[in-house]
Specification:
- The complex is a heterodimer.
- Chain A is built from 8 helices and 6 strands.
- Chain A is an alpha/beta fold.
- Chain A has one domain: ATP synthase, F1 complex, gamma subunit (Pyruvate Kinase, Chain: A, domain 1, 3-Layer(aba) Sandwich).
- Chain A has a 5-stranded mixed β-sheet.
- Chain A is elongated and about 115 Å long.
- The two termini of chain A are 32 Å apart.
- The relative contact order of chain A is 0.17.
- Chain B folds into 2 domains: 81 residues, ATP Synthase, domain 1, CATH 2.60.15; 44 residues.
- Chain B is elongated.
- In chain B, a hairpin with a 2-residue loop joins β6 and β7.
- By secondary structure, chain B is α+β, with helices and mostly antiparallel strands.
- Helix content of chain B is 29%, strand content 46%.
- The chains are: A alpha/beta, B alpha+beta.
- At the A-B interface, α1, β6 and α8 of A face β5 of B.
Chain lengths: 295, 130
């Protein structure tokens, strides 16, 4: 049986761990609020482009634009996987990477797949599995700006135009709520025009809108190109923000669990400690009584 | 009409307005309710909208505007409210830039940079004038 001193030591150490997990939870909660605000603030921009871009492009433009048209037989798929740099965030990375494995071996099994990874956790995962991949660290992640997203977007767009891959998927955890992060596979290239999908939703309304000719100020091709580039960049931007908010949410709930587990453990250990202490007192008393009787 | 002004990073305004003015490649233009389906790129320039007798003025640095029968959506690359600028400061900086253009004999790239800077200052001044 553990001695009193040992139990006391363990209690102190669990208490210290609890302090750390509690602090981490608080930090994650504070940063989560910021990340969530940034995410919510950034969504309208993409929604507006998304709602309009389908009706701004004519059929011919859609079929001809290099970012929109799909090759006859897509062969090469590129995946950009957003993981975190730090751990202690529950199933955040594990879940995403496991789902990715599944996606690669099922939905994307007929492609020749290439991986690019953001975040040290993803890097470590693929390195230990001896899988070929590119590691793309993200500079000053905490204040990820749209300009950075634009840079990322233009790099990948260049690669797509040069035919390095026929499909680009962005893989990240999208933020549903603090306790729920959903691994998402977002196809970026070729860009899907959601017009058809929306037509089923409100068929007549969209049809009417489509028929209205657009009056352009400036060259339509240039405006559309700029709009498309911003559209792509906003996908990258939002993906990073979603991933960050998810990471913080996951960390917060993981640390919350850890804190309450520690409380439980402290309770158990304290009980054990008190029992052991009582046992020691009883033994001592018996000794004294026996000694007194012997006299 | 409904207007919505957003940047990639945040939403600036969403709500009703009676009219909206922005600065396109051919200069300033206004949009009233019932406009044709219209798309314009935005240059560096002022943007303002009026709701009742209230006017709200901004400086936009590039972007795109999509107008429709009863809605206007502004996708600005960067936007700043006009009330954070100070008129005398702007005028002083404008004079400085003019001086640099005329006296320092700048290289073509520098010239472009300075004139862009000048455009911004002028747009800010104009935005204050709404």
């Amino acid at each position: 049986m553990a001695t009193l001193k040992n139990i006391r030591k363990r209690i102190t150490s669990v208490k210290n761990t609890q302090k750390i997990t509690r602090a981490m939870k608080m930090v994650a909660a504070a940063r989560l609020r910021r990340a969530q605000m940034a995410l919510l603030a950034a969504r309208p921009y993409r929604n507006i482009i998304e709602a309009n871009i389908g009706r701004l492009f004519s059929e011919e433009q859609k079929n001809a634009h290099p970012l929109l048209k799909s090759v006859e037989e897509p062969k090469k798929a590129q995946f950009l996987i957003l993981t975190s740099d730090r751990g202690l965030c529950g199933g955040f990375n594990g879940n995403l990477l496991r789902q990715t494995e599944h996606f690669l071996s099922h939905e994307a099994a007929h492609f020749e797949n290439k991986l690019a990874v953001v975040g040290k956790k993803g890097r470590d995962y693929y390195r230990s599995r001896k899988v070929d991949f590119d590691f793309l660290p993200l500079q000053n992640q905490d204040v990820f700006s749209f300009a950075q997203a634009q840079q990322m977007a233009s790099q990948w767009t260049e690669k797509f135009k040069q035919g390095e891959f026929d499909r680009l998927y962005l893989v990240y955890n999208s933020f549903k709520s603090v306790i729920s992060q959903i691994p998402t596979f977002q196809q970026i290239f070729p860009l899907a025009m959601d017009l058809d999908a929306k037509q089923t939703a409100s068929d007549t309304e969209i049809q009417e809108k489509v028929r209205i000719p657009v009056k352009w100020e400036g060259k339509p091709e240039i405006i559309l190109d700029q709009l498309l580039m911003r559209y792509v960049a906003s996908y990258f931007y939002l993906a990073v923000l979603e991933s960050q908010a998810s990471e913080l949410g996951a960390r917060m709930s993981a640390m919350d669990n850890a804190t309450s587990n520690a409380s439980e453990m402290i309770g158990k250990l304290t009980l054990q400690y008190n029992r052991a202490r009582q046992a020691a007192i009883t033994t001592e008393l018996m000794d004294i009584v026996n000694g007194a009787e012997a006299l | 009409m409904k207007i919505q002004i957003v940047t990639p990073e945040k939403e600036i305004y969403q709500g009703e307005a009676d009219e909206l003015y922005a600065y396109g490649p051919k200069g300033e233009f206004g949009i009233l309710p019932g406009h044709v389906f219209y798309v314009s790129s935005l240059e560096i320039g002022r943007l303002y909208y009026r709701t009742g007798s209230e006017k709200h003025s901004y400086v936009v640095e590039g972007g795109c505007l999509i107008a429709d029968q009863n809605s206007v959506q502004v996708l600005a690359d960067q936007i700043k409210p006009a009330d954070q600028f100070n008129k005398t400061e702007l005028e002083k900086r404008l004079v400085d830039l003019d001086k640099r253009l005329s006296q320092e004999n700048p290289s073509p790239e520098e010239f472009d940079k300075i004139s862009q800077e000048k455009d911004k200052e002028q747009a800010r001044l104009a935005a204050l004038d709404v």
